[in-house]
Each structure stands twice: as structure tokens, then as C-alpha cells.
Amino acid sequence: MAVIAPVAPSTTRLHRRTPRTPRTLLGLSVLIAAIMALPLVFLFILTDHAGWSEVRQLIDRRLTLTLLWNTVRLTVVVTVLCAVIGTATAWCIERTNLPGRQVWAVLVVVPLAIPDFVVSFGWTSLSNHVVGFHGAVLVMTLAVYPLVHLPVAASLRNADPSQEEMSGSLGVGRLRTFWRVTVGQARGAILGGCLLVSLVMLAEYGAFEILSYRTFTTEIFTEFHVAFDLPGACALSLVLVALSIVAVGGDLRLRSHGQVARTGSHAQRVTRRHDLGRAKIPVLLGFLALIGLAIGVPVGAAIYWMVQGGPPAITGVSLGSATAHTALYAAGAGAIATVAALPIALLSVRHPGRLGNLLERSTLLVLAMPGLVTALALSYFVERYAGGHLYQSATLLVLAYAILFFPLALVAVRASVMRAPARLEDVARSLGRGRVSVLLRVTLPLIAPGLAAAFCLVFLSVVTELTATLILIPTGVQTLATQFWQYQTNLSYSQAAPFALLMMGIAAVPSLVLGRWFDRLPAKAV
Amino acid sequence: MPVSRPRPTTIAAAATAVAAVLALAGCGSSNSGGTAPSGSQSTGSSSAGSQTITLYNGQHEQTTDALVAGFEKKTGIKVKVRNDDEDVFDDQILTEGSHSPADVIYTENTPALQFLQEHNLLAKVDPTTLAKTPSKYNSPQGDWLGISARVSVLDYDPSLISASQLPKTALALADPQYQGKLAIAPGETDFQPVVTSMIKQYGSARTLAWLKGLKANAGSHDYPDNETIASDVNDGKVAFGLINQYYWYRLGAEIGTSKYHSQIAYFAPHDPGYVLDVSGAAVLASSKHQAAAQQFLAYLNSPAGQEIIAHSDSFEYPIASGVSRGAPETPFNQLRPNPIDLEQLGDGQAAVNLMKQAQLL
Fold first, then answer.
1. How far apart are CA B188 and CA B169, in angstroms?
2. Taking residues B121-127, what's their average pLDDT?
3. Which of B88, B108, B258, B313 to mutate to test the interface with A (most CBs of A within 10 A)?
4. What would the mean pLDDT of A478-507 be, rounded to a whole number?
5. What pLDDT is recorded for position B206?
6. Among A329, A370, A303, A285, residue whose Cα is nearest residue A504
7. DSSP secondary structure letters along B35-93
8. Alpha-carbon span B263 to B249, nearest angstrom
9. What is the DSSP string of B282-302?
């Protein structure tokens, strides 16, 4: 509904009467959380097979402490750097008159869809110094900062700009306004993005292997690959789960400090962009440097391979077929994960409470688990309870992707729901609208930027997913990632390169399309 | 000035987008019926003339591609190939249980097959097929078949270390004089057979001390894989490394002779570091196409299959009787590996445990 009722300006949503939680919403949320818990259940089943004494033996080693320390310090440093970079890029693109905003908006998210191998190869061939801790910080920061950028950008899109203006008119300086108002508004999104970064860092493996940086997760993969010890690996994965519970819990604590929703009565309105003024050139140079490092280096590596040539070609599928399958799977997973995130986001924001929090937090843990575990968990349950039906089918693969990357969708959707004024929904309901009608006609349009960001995040992550894909993909089908991997492991780099470039190309599509769509939305900033 | 007018369009746009995306997802699902006949579905067609079997392939794809093409042409049986690491396939097959879509598994090393054998997941290989490969390269229980072989060697940069300075025994790799010069890849499946061989020769305690020496000598040259060792040695980043011989040949084929100046050296005859690694294949007990799967194994060590391996770019030695690999490699019958048998190599658990104690894993 377009008409905004002149309600008295209350300041926070905490003052609102929390309505009774609708049964359907609760039921859906419980169901979705149960599906997301499957990998964790599988971990416990297998650890139980391994026997807990073996677990203790594995963990109780000097090396384990070193590796845990490696994991933790890397996670912390990369998360902080990503928070700064992702927030800065989002603010510049959404709130300032930065030249070429639309182009930057597309380019800035592409790094999420570049295979680890290409990035690491690019860097290690540029310099011998990109190894160990510093190498890992550099490579990972450049690869995952879009996890902060996308939710924050979506959040700033539908945040209320009048607070910034008001702050300015009250004589508060620009920097302090930025810090207190803008960052405050995007707080949920920034924290959510940071949480995603830290969970992804816990599960990261491929890049570290190439950069010779050993973390706890590389240890888990050793169990899988060298010791053929799946139960042992699952037992160790529980340590990752414990670490992610710490991250998820820490985020909850930070999040609960002061929560400011949109306060103005205007749903969305034209915003004046900040004039960067003399800072324009340095900011532009900053963007150039970021994109140059994050995309230029891997693109350079791919082009280098193409001109180098290589050993005799091996057969593979066409670029077209691999691209079509990748796009189809990624879009399917993006849609499913985004739709599935909606009930849990609505529940945890609109009906806050222990149960809502627990359901929401529990679904985030899956991101810190190795993709291999999630894929094998689905195989296990399908084999046990469905007679192997759907195994290695496109349906199960898309579902697996939606589970693997559900937390990305949830964080983006949730950040947007937080920014959408609940009062508008109340008003619509008081005007006699049913719940579904309110959802479709009021809530969804308000949180559209968050839904789009959720879709993009999942889409981009699916493009490069490999370990779960290799286990679950229909036999004979190739995606860009699997075909790239096959050529790369067979040292056919020149054949692998076009697939890597296409992965980056396809990554630009959703943000391009959605960006154009947003620019036609009424909230458009001028 | 609340935004009133564009709302319906927004909603329509949102709805269209969601519908489009869901349609896409739907396509993805409906696709599965058409393009992905899994094991159970393909059973139906097996009664008809043309059969299809599914191969879980952990071997280098170049070779497998050629072998599959030859087999399909000869028998008319179609082979669907899935590629992944063999250890992932092991876990996968274990999880899939009786519904596994796989008919045949083909691996680079025997521990992956040994693991499946220990879990009773393999069918017996046809005795006439087994008889064509020298029995020491097959599973003694007859559960898997040896197809091709490689051998562990030292790969070195002559400008950093001369052939005469190289260790002649695996034991000497731990000698302090090689500190900072040695490269190893303990996480590779090719490394643990050497460790197992050392345990058989010297016992666990001495092998553990040896592994610690190796770790000290390797320092930062602890690599994720043999390919990296081969290329770093050739780039002069490290003096020498322990690899399987074929990585050196493969790198040579990839970068061309002009840029290739590293060399390989063999250990002293029958040294425990001189280990023959065998690549093998097996039919799964759960396979619903036993006859066709057995035919595929028979093709792998038939003269036609072995010829393909002998001329492939994976530089492995064919091991069934009658076919040999030509230059540039040292002829198979001139190799003098440690006479440890594959059963003794087992699934490598003892080696892995020692490597963990030495903090190499």
C-alpha cells in the first residue's frame, strides 16, 4: 500500500507490541531449520562411529593448537579487513556521487565467483612472497569482501537517509555522521556480513593448500584424503562447528546492542548523494586498485594460460553446456535459498524470542562445514530413507547448494527485514489486509533489495562450488567449475582458462540485471 | 511525498522475477529426469542391447578418456565417467551403500581399493582377467586388478645439487646435510607407501625418527602435491624432491624441453625408498551390471588397453604381460624397486599414524 498513515513517530521497534507468532511462520521456520541441520546430524552420527576417544587423540596434539591458532588469527584479521572494505565500497556506491557507480557495483562482487585455484595461482606466479599468513590474508580478503559489500549495499539502499541529513543539520561532522548514523543503520548488515566472512574462513581449504598455509580445515582434509578416515574428519569438523558457534554467538551479542530501525514515516524517497568533492580522485584510485588486485590478477593468470598452450587436449563438454548448467543450478539455488530464508528472517526480526533466535542462529552453522560433509550427508539420508532416489540428480544438487549457502541468503534477507518498518505492515493489516496480502504487497517490496542481494550471494557462491558438486552432479553433466577443475588437475591450463573467465563473466550477470532493475525503483538515489 | 504510483509496477516486477527464477529452478529439476539416469534407472535399459556402466574415475583423465573410447568402440557398452579424487570416491561409495550408482572404480593407488576391499564393497575380479597381470600387482584376495605402475624417484635441479651429492637411500633423506634442500608432499597418496616401506624395513621407532628428520630438512618445502614439487624444482626454488617418476615426465610434456632442466635419479636398487605404486581397478559388489563391468576390467589389461596406457601422456608403465612402455622412460624391467608387496602397503594406516606423530600431517 502506498498510503502512509500519519502515525506518531515512535523511535524503535522495541516499543511495538509484538504480535503473537503466526503458526504457519513458525512451522515453516522449524521445517527449514530442520533441513539445514541435516549436515550437523550426519556429523554427529559419524563421530559417534569413530568413537570419542579417537577424537580426543586427534585433537590432543601440539600441531592442533598451532593450526587452531592459525585458523583463528586469520579469521579475525580477514573479517576486520572485509568489514572495512565491504562497508566502504557499499557506501561509496550507494550514497556518493562516485563516477561510474553502476560499473563498480557490478565489478565489485565478481571476486566471489573466481575459483581459489585461479586466484592463488595468479598471486603465487606474480610473487614468491604471497605465501603463509600474509599471503592468505591478502588472497582471502580480496576474495570474500563481497560477502560484506552485498548485504551492506542492500541495507543502505533501503535505509532512511533523513537521519544522516538530520545529523548533518544538527552540526555533527561528516565523519561522525558516517560513523554514528550510516554505520549504525547498516550495523545489522555489517555484522551479518562479518559473520559470513568468518564462517566461510573457517571452512576454507583450497586456497590455503595452494598458499601453503595450514589451518584446522586443512587438517580435516588430510584426514579425508590421506587417512581415508571420514569419521575422524567428521569428528574434527565438530571443532569447526564449535568455533562457528562462538562466532554466531558473538554476533548475537554485538547485534543486541541498540537496534535502530527506520524511523521516518516515509517508506522510500529520493536521497541526495554525498558529494565526494576533492576525495573523488583518491576514492576512484582506491576502487581501481581493489578491482585490479581482486579481478586483474586472476584474469591475468587465466589469459597467461590461454597464450601459453599446453599438453595434448582432453575431451570435455562445450563452454555453452557448462555455462547453461551453471546458470540454471545457481539461479535455482539462489531462488530456493532466498525464499527459504524469508520465514526465518521474518520470525527472528518480527517475533524476537528464544526460539526464533535459536532457529535463526542454528541455520548459520552449515556455512562453516566443509561442502564435502554436506554433500555426503545428503547422500547418506537419501540412501537411508529414500532408497537412493534423486541421488545425483539436478534436484538434489540444487537443494544441496541451497543448503550450503542458505546462511548467505538469510543474512541478506534479515538485514533488509530489520530496515523495513514493521509499522507499515501493521497499518496495512489494520486496514483489513490479510497476512499473505501484507507480505506480498508491503513487506516484499520493502525488502526487495535484500532479496536481490541474497539471490546474488547464493548465485555467485554456487558458480565456484566444487567439492559437493563433484559428488552430487548428474553423471555426464559438467558445470564451469567441474570442467575447469578437470582441465586444471590434468595440467591442461590453456583449456581450463576459458572456463575460469566465463565463471567471472557469469558472476557479473545477476548484479547487472538486478542493479538495472533497482535503478528504476522509486528509492533511487540521485 | 510518499512514493505512491510506481508501487504496483514494483510488485509486478518482483513477482515476475521470482516467477522467472522459480521457473528456472523448475527447469533444473525437470532436467534431472532427462539427463541423469542414475544407477537404478539405467538398470532398465541393461536388459536391452546397449548397456551403460558408470565409472568412478580417480585416474588421470587423459588416459581414462582414451581407454573408455577404446572400450566403447570394441564392445558397444557405454561408459559414463565421473571424475573426483579417489579418496572422496571411497567415502562416497561407503555412504551410497547398496544403492551406489558406480559399477567400476579406477584409482591411482591401491590403498583406495584396499580400503573398499576391507569394507567388503568389492566383487571378485574374473580369474582369467587377473591371470593376465603378474599376481604380485593384484589383490591377493582377487578383489581388485593392477593396471599400471609408477615408481618413486628423486627429482633434482642439477645447478643446485649434483647427482653424486644426492642421497642414494631413503634413510639418507633425513641426513642434516640436506637441510633446506629437500621437498616433500606428505599429504599426497604417493608419499605414504614410502613410509610404509620404511616401517617394514626399519620398524616404527626408527621410521618416526626418520620422519622427524625429513620434516626438519623440508622446512618450508612441505608441499601440497607432487606437481608443485616438480615445477618448483624445475624453477630452482628447491634443490630436490621426492616424487613419483611420472610427474617429472608430465611436467616435461607440459612445458617443453627448452625450459626443462631438472633431472630424475633413482634410489639404490631395492632401497625402501624405491617403491612401486600400482594403479588399479575393481568392480563394485553392488553393481547391477556385473558382466559389463567385468568386461571393462578385462579391457583395461588387454593388449589394446595396455597399449593405450603405454602411449598415453600420463607416463605410467603398463603391467599386464606383453606390452611395454618405450623411451624416454627407463624400461620397466630395468627398475629395481623394493620388493614389498601391495598387500603389505595395505591401506597405509600405520604410515599415516606415524606421519601424524611426526607432525607432518
1. 21
2. 97
3. B88
4. 86
5. 96
6. A303
7. H---HHHHHHHHTSSS-EEEEEE-S-HHHHHHHHHHHHHHH--EEEEEE--HHHHHHHH
8. 10
9. EEBTT-S-HHHHHHHHHHHTS
Largest Cα separation within chain A, whole Å, is: 74
Mode of pairing for the β-strands spanning B52-57 and B78-83: parallel
**A430 and A297 Cβ atoms separated by less than 8 Å:** no
Long-range contacts of B290-295, Cβ-Cβ distance < 8 Å, separation of 24 or more: B290/B123, B292/B46, B292/B51, B292/B53, B292/B75, B292/B77, B292/B103, B293/B53, B293/B103, B293/B104, B293/B123, B294/B125, B294/B126, B294/B129, B295/B71, B295/B75, B295/B77
Report how far residue A415's alpha carbon sits from residue A454's, in angstroms, rounded to the nearest whole number.
Answer: 10
User: In what helix (H) or strand (E) does residue B150 lie, and over which residues does it extend?
Assistant: strand B145-156
Nearest residue of chain B to residue A224 (CA atoms):
B87
- Give A320-345 pLDDT, tens digit per residue: 999 999 999 999 999 999 999 999 99
Chain A: nearest CA to B106, how far in angstroms? 16
Question: What one-character-per-residue DSSP string does A229-297 give?
Answer: -HHHHHHHHHHHHHHHHHHHHHHHHHHHS------SS-SS---PPBP-GGGHHHHHHHHHHHHIIIIIH
Buried b (16+ CB within 10 A) or exposed e, A239-262: bbbebbeebbeebeeebeeeebbb
pLDDT in tens, A270-323: 567 778 888 899 999 999 999 999 999 999 888 888 887 655 566 667 889 999
Nearest to A227 among B88, B250, B352 (CB): B352
Nearest to A398 among B11, B28, B251 (CB): B28
The answer to whether residues A369 and A234 touch, using CB atoms and an 8 Å cutoff, is: no
Q: Give the three cell numbers for residue A38.
A: 541435516
Is the CB of residue A108 less than 8 Å from the CB of residue A283? no
State how far the Cα of B310 lies from the Cα of A38, in Å rounded to an integer: 46
Ramachandran region, residue A390 (left: φ > 0; alpha: ψ -120 to 50; beta: rest) = left
Output phi, psi for A140, to 5 deg.
-70, -40
The residue of chain A with its CA nearest to that of B2 is: A266
0.90 cut: is pTM over it? no
Out of B91, B250, B251, closest to residue A230 by CB: B91
**H/E segment holding residue B254:** helix B245-255
Rounded to whole angstroms, the Cα distance separating B104 from B64 reads 12
- B5 to chain A, any CB pair closer than 8 A? The answer is yes
The three cell numbers of residue B171 are: 634413510
* Sequence-ordered list of residues with C-beta below 8 angstroms from that of A278, at least 6 positions apart, any chain: none
Q: Report the distance separating Cα B107 and Cα A359, nearest Å.
A: 43
What's the gap in Å between the CA of B35 and the closest CA on chain A? Answer: 7
Find where cell 507468532 sits.
Answer: A21
Place of cell 529452478: B25
Answer for the pair A323, B17: CB distance below 8 angstroms, yes or no.
Answer: no
The set of cell numbers assigned to B336 is 629395481
- The shortest C-alpha distance from B22 to chain A (Å) reads 6
Contact A312 B62 (CB under 8 A): yes
Size (chain B), residues:
361
Number of neighbours of residue B43 by Cβ within 10 angstroms: 14
State phi, psi for A503 to the nearest 5 degrees: -60, -40
Mutate to test the interface with A, among B22, B29, B250 (most CBs of A within 10 A): B29
Q: Using the beta-carbon criterion (under 8 Å), do A2 and B39 form an inter-chain contact? A: no
Query: Contact A377/A39 with Cβ under 8 angstroms?
Result: yes
Q: The cell 612441505 sits on which residue?
A: B222
User: B134: which 3 cell numbers?
Assistant: 603378474
**Beta-strand runs (E) in A282-432:** none
Tens digits of residue pLDDT in A95-120 = 888 999 889 999 999 998 888 778 88
Residues A330 and A458: their CA atoms lie apart, in Å, by: 7
